[in-house]
Design goal:
The chain is mainly α. Helix content is 67%, strand content 0%. This is MFS multidrug transporter.
Length: 371
């Protein structure tokens, strides 16, 4: 929470606001329990309803305004989201019965119940879902924030994980990808993206654990579909490349450039090792990284250095094809090679000469495209 420009009164106001929201939530919980009893419904013991305010959007507004919810309110809000997206059988039956009963559905009590428990995925966004994802992306991609906001990072990552777990178990691939895409779009590039990589890797590991041989062979598999880890890994690789305004990485040491090149090569190796058709995925990779070519061509030169390959494998051919795409993109954006920065030109010419002198025809043909 940022300090108040007016001092203590703002903190006092926030304390009063949170106490009010807690009391509001407890009152609403008593109303929900009364509603269940009054209309003869039942809930299982494990279907504990959370003490959320009648207007659950209030919690989301607090978050988006930069206020920090106390643990009890945070937990109540997250449970409200999860139960809307994936209600237990008792809660689902109550909501279905209310919707089916015209008189009850149109009553004030019925409308209030449905406003709380018939929100489905909208509940996540009412709770500030977009803000949660964007906030997590911002502070995990900023190394200076890791210590200051350590507790917030843990809480936000758990919240995002809870929702993504529901999407995974339900086979909601598009919704899962949508949240990951929003997270990636909200990251801010820095030299150290380790924390952001770890967030994404945890979801990759979870998907890989689900994609077992038994799941593959089960004709009645649940979930029916699982997201592609290729897309997440490609997002993670792309975010390591600096934005266009960062120049040509000349201010950064060779270690950073070589590490980024090594990760790019490892990504290609992993794509080939899957032993499944890769053409569409490779085209997507060329499009993603080709766009980065105007600001990071020293990395491309490392990737395209295959002159030590006496017997190249498929990965080596794809490395050259990727760099060809990056060269073409950079030429279209920055003009002919001879007009580029001298340090970049020297590296590109050395790489092209090595391709020209190669005993591999594919490499020689690639060099010929730029003569």
């Amino acid at each position: 929470m940022t300090a108040s420009p007016h001092g203590e009164p703002e903190n006092e106001f926030q304390d009063v606001l949170m106490d009010t929201l807690r009391a509001y939530g407890e009152t609403n919980l008593r109303w929900m329990e009364l509603f269940v009893r009054k209309y003869g419904f039942t809930l299982r013991d494990e279907e504990r309803l959370p003490p959320v305010p009648p207007d659950s959007k209030l919690l989301g507004r607090c978050l988006s305004d930069g206020l920090i919810l106390p643990g009890a309110l945070w937990d109540a809000g997250m449970r409200h989201v999860v139960l809307n997206i994936k209600p237990g059988p008792g809660l689902a039956d109550i909501t279905a019965s209310v919707k089916k009963n015209t008189k009850l559905r149109n009553s004030n009590a019925g409308k209030r119940w449905l406003s709380l428990w018939d929100q489905k995925y909208a509940a996540f966004f009412d709770f500030g879902g977009s803000w949660l994802v964007e906030r997590l992306a911002t502070i995990t991609s900023d190394p200076a924030s890791h210590t200051t906001y350590e507790g917030e990072i843990i809480r936000l990552e758990a919240a995002m994980g809870n929702i993504l777990d529901v999407h995974l178990s339900d086979g909601q691939v598009n919704r899962f990808d949508g949240i990951i895409s929003r997270y990636m779009a909200s990251t801010v590039w820095s030299l150290d993206m380790t924390a952001t990589e770890k967030v994404l890797q945890r979801f990759v590991d979870k998907i890989n654990d689900m994609r077992t041989e038994g799941w593959q062979r089960d004709r009645h598999r649940r979930p029916a579909a699982i997201p592609s880890t290729f897309n997440i890994n490609l997002y993670a690789l792309q975010m390591l490349y600096p934005p266009e305004h960062s120049g040509d990485l000349e201010p950064f040491d060779g270690e950073y450039i070589s590490k980024l090149a090594a990760k790019t090569i490892k990504f290609i190796d992993g794509m080939v090792a899957r032993k499944i058709p890769y053409h569409n995925d490779f085209e997507r990779m060329k499009n993603y990284l080709g766009f980065k070519a105007s600001c990071c061509f020293q990395v491309a030169i490392f990737v395209g250095s295959v002159d030590d390959r006496e017997v190249p494998d498929l990965s080596d051919y794809l490395r050259v094809d990727l760099v060809v795409a990056m060269l073409k993109t950079r030429i279209s954006r920055k003009g002919p090679i001879h007009e580029w920065e001298e340090s970049i030109v020297r590296g590109v010419r050395k790489m092209l000469i090595s391709w020209q002198r190669s005993h591999i025809e594919h490499f020689r043909d690639a060099a010929g495209l730029f003569q």
